[in-house]
Design goal:
Elements: H1 3-24, H2 31-36, H3 38-60, H4 68-72, H5 78-90, H6 92-104, H7 112-135
Helix pairs in contact: 1-3, 3-7, 5-6, 6-7
Length: about 140
């Protein structure tokens, strides 16, 4: 099984779980249960998004010695440029979270996309944990 199929399945699974919780089961859950259910859809969604981005970079980048970040900002892939603009409009933290896993690994390393997806997911889960521990109780 190709990893890209797994990433797409993870995205679809995450979206399906989020739709179920927030559209079909919303009235049956308390606020605490809704907050606790975030990880069920957030982790697969983020894992799939990072995996798809890394797979696209690896498949489209001609020079595997080039940095993935340099390729991302080179303008050679319009879809990735739109993604950067979209994430950048959401905030600098999101853009930094996108770039850190890509800067950590070289494209020619084995399982580049899986490593980027795992590190990116771990960073996002860590940020979500900090949000729930620091900011959420103050709201």
């Amino acid at each position: 099984m190709k990893l890209s199929v797994m990433y797409i399945a993870a995205i679809l699974f995450g979206l399906a779980i989020a739709v179920y919780f927030y559209f079909f089961n919303f009235d049956n859950m308390s606020e605490t249960e809704l907050v606790n259910s975030v990880l069920y859809w957030y982790v697969p969604l983020i894992f799939g998004i990072y995996g798809i981005i890394a797979t696209r970079i690896k498949s489209r980048m001609g020079d595997l010695d080039m940095s993935p970040i340099k390729y991302l900002f080179s303008g050679k892939d319009r879809l990735l440029i739109v993604l950067i603009v979209f994430i950048g409009c959401g905030g600098v933290i999101g853009l930094i979270l996108l770039l850190i896993p890509l800067a950590f690994f070289k494209v020619q390393t084995p399982y580049f996309d899986a490593k980027v997806a795992l590190l990116g997911t771990a960073l996002c889960v860590l940020l979500l944990w900090v949000f729930f521990q620091v900011l959420w109780p103050a709201l």
